[in-house]
């Protein structure tokens, strides 16, 4: 059985969602797939900052195995240009509180893909809140929020956070933010001058240049926010474009962070995905950049927050995943400071297990068996 859930949402003090209908509804939405054989007292909640998980591939398989499963859509569904990670934390908290009020005794939080950093951030702040504002100094204050902790945390084909991923992926050959065609040929992995396998000294220089570019954008964002503050008007934010956001050398050279993956990206050839409008992080507001994309200022550092959780943790990764590489999984697994943790590869698993029903079944079986071992499947 499938049910649409309307979950009360804590409103923001600024307009960061374009749709007036969405803002006035005062709700976020989720899809509940219920186990039909025996009523479940446990619920699995799948989260992502912006993707629509109401149709997630794992919902029905978990319900078929006796675990009610909920796919959440945050207030930023399909549009992360003004996304604030701290508001996503509020949305996850609202969903867990809603499920507990419905009578679920156990709630298991599953972060998939970009939901990995969010899930870690949420559980960390639910157990021991420390964040009093966004990096721009705005609400919410998570130390004053009602954030019920989950009973366990799962990371599924996940990465540690959007700021780290963008920094790993951002194109350091872009030297003029207003002109994507002005490029540093010494760092251009698409020019044909530099070919894989890339030597270690090139990778080191490339990575340093990626960090430098992220920090240049952050410095520019701070300057623009200072100008807005000095103007003393009602306008508090501005949009901007980021060119070249899918240029991780791992997309081109599969010997780096080796796995079973094919060269390229989930969005097609790397050079195309790097510039196409529909791929990662091309549009942002100033305040959103600090919250989700700034490598130095974002609060969403998945490894840091995984180190702060006390609940059981299961980390699963696909060995053929073109998006979340094996090192992302081991980074989050190694960060967990207690021993009740497990790392499970999904052999030949793609990022969303598209066209791989046997892999979906393996993931669902693994998750349910692990929950039963921990008395979390009721």
Automatic annotation (TrEMBL):
Highest taxon in the source lineage: Bacteria
InterPro entries: AB_hydrolase_fold (IPR029058), MAG_DAG_Lipase (IPR051044)
Descriptive protein name: Lysophospholipase
Species this chain originates from: Gordonia liuliyuniae
């Amino acid at each position: 059985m499938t049910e649409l859930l309307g979950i009360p949402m804590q409103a923001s003090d600024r307009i960061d969602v374009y749709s007036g209908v969405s803002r006035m509804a005062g709700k976020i939405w989720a899809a509940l797939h219920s186990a039909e054989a025996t009523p479940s007292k446990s619920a699995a909640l799948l989260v992502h900052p912006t993707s629509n998980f109401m149709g997630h591939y794992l919902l029905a398989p978990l319900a078929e195995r006796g675990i009610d499963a909920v796919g959440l859509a945050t207030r930023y569904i399909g549009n992360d240009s003004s996304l604030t990670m701290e508001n996503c934390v509020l949305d996850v908290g609202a969903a867990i509180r809603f499920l507990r009020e419905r009578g679920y005794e156990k709630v298991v939080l599953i972060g998939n893909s970009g939901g990995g950093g969010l899930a870690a951030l949420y559980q960390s702040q639910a157990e021991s809140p420390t964040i009093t504002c966004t990096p721009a100094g705005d609400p919410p204050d998570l130390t004053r929020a009602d954030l019920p902790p989950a009973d366990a945390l799962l990371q599924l084909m996940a990465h540690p956070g959007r700021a780290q991923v963008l920094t790993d992926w951002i194109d350091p050959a872009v030297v003029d933010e207003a002109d994507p065609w002005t490029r540093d040929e010494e760092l251009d992995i698409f020019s044909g001058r530099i070919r894989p396998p890339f030597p270690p000294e090139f990778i080191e220089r490339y990575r340093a240049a990626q960090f430098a570019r992220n920090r240049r954008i952050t410095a520019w964002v701070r300057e623009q926010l200072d100008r807005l503050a000095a103007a003393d008007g009602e306008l508090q934010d501005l949009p901007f474009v980021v060119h070249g956001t899918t240029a991780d050398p791992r997309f081109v050279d599969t010997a780096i962070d080796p796995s079973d993956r094919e060269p390229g990206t989930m969005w097609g050839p790397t050079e195309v995905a790097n510039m196409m409008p529909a791929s990662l992080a091309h549009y942002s507001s100033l305040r959103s950049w600090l919250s989700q994309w700034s490598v130095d200022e974002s609060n969403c550092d998945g490894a840091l927050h995984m180190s702060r959780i006390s609940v059981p943790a299961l980390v699963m990764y696909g060995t053929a995943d073109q998006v979340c590489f094996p090192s992302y999984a081991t980074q989050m697994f190694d960060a967990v400071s207690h021993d009740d943790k497990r790392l499970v590869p999904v052999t030949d698993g793609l990022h969303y297990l598209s066209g791989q029903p046997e892999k979906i079944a393996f993931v669902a079986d693994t998750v349910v068996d692990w929950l039963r071992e921990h008395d979390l499947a009721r």
